Amino acid sequence: MPDPTSADETRPCYRSGAVARMIRMPVATLRIWERRYQVAAPATSPTGHRLYSAADVQRLALVKQLTELGHSIGSIAGLDAEGLRQVAATHATTLAGARTLPAAAPVLPWRVVVAGGALLRRLQRPTLQRRLGRPLDIVAGVAHLDDLAELDLPPAGPRVDVLLVHASGLHEGDLADLQAAARAIGAARLAVFYGFASAAIGDAFAAAGVALLREPRDDAALGAWLGGLCGEAAQTPAAPAEPIDCAAPVTDPRLVALGPVPERRYSDAELADFAGLSSTIACECPRHLAELLMQLSHFEAYSAQCRDRSPADAVLHAYLGQVAGAARSLFESALERVAVIEGLVPPSA
Q1: pLDDT of 68-84, one tens digit each?
Q2: Cα–Cα dist 72/63, whole Å
């Protein structure tokens, strides 16, 4: 039988967006739970909006907590409130009993040095860290690869398991530079999360034993890749980017009309923070916009480096960089508009 509840607890008053924020769950997941598993049965307002009661919110929060502890949603969706509490109590009893058992051998932390502000922010997210299978110890983190030279790690200090690098693009000569950086800090392995590279460069990195993953990847995919590195599993290098087709550029009057390309408004770290904000949009457009902006910015930087390193293609790469910069500027404006409409804090705030 359903639990007796007060009138206030059963009065529908919360819309789905508010409930999703309270229990830290995407609205799309909430609706899937309702449609497939009947986890909640919200009332419907005269205007067609779902309205949840306080009891509904408490139930959803408990179900979410149990799924995070390893229970499948299908196995607990049909339980009433008392049944859910009993399952939760079992976990509490088990944890209490575990305190009386002999201590297990300690799990050594995975010690990493990180180069890349956005990657550093993402590594601090609990949802990503849970996928690693062992504690994460960020020995040092720098916003840019060039800043690694400023690190003062003691030669006889604790080991560094891996140097994690976030690079917008990989070019000729980068492999030797990154390997030297890894040796300088005593890292046992080098791993690179990158945006763009030619097939030849990607093959050279893979042949040298560097772990590669091409962005964009969500936290689940990034966490799975890092979890494999963390467990010292054999890695299959990510497919390298296709080489850019350096056909002769054409004059584009639309770019001339746009004028000079403005500087970036948001750093990778700011965009990573924005992508992690909760949204009421079921398709998660704010997150996708932020990730697309990072990709455009990385390709813009990649084109500039290609122009410097390949004089014969200077005109082409200048054109590609201008196209990417113009698109990036337009998407930055779109991101600000979405932030205002959704009531989110824009990256520059």
Answers
A1: 777 888 788 888 888 88
A2: 10
Mean pLDDT confidence for 18-40: 80
| 3-state SS, one letter per residue, for the chain | CCCCCCHHHHCCCEEHHHHHHHCCCCHHHHHHHHHHHCCCCCEECCCCCEEECHHHHHHHHHHHHHHHCCCCHHHHCCCCHHHHHHHHHHHHHHHHHHCCCCCCCCCCCEEEEEECHHHHHHHCCHHHHCCCCCCEEEEEEECCHHHHHHCCCCCCCCCEEEEEEEEEECCCCHHHHHHHHHHHCCEEEEEEEEEECCHHHHHHHHHCCCEEEECCCCHHHHHHHHHHHHCCCCCCCCCCCCCCCCCCCCCCHHHHHHCCCCCCCCCHHHHHHHHCCCCCCCCCHHHHHHHHHHHHHHHHHHHHHHHHHCHHHHHHHHHHHHHHHHHHHHHHHHHHHHHHHHCCCCCCC
Structure-token match 């997150």, residue found = 287
The predicted pLDDT at position 102 comes to: 52
Handedness of CA 306, 308, 312, 316 (dihedral sign): positive
d(CA 329, CA 4): 56
The set of residues, in sequence order, having a beta carbon less than 8 Å from that of 86 and lying 6+ positions away, is none
Mean pLDDT of 236-256: 41
| pLDDT beyond 50 at 248 | no
pLDDT tens digit sequence for 260-284: 677 888 777 777 777 776 555 556 7
Report the distance separating Cα 54 and Cα 9, nearest Å: 5
Residues in the chain: 349
pLDDT value at position 245?
40
346 compared with 342, residue with greater pLDDT: 342
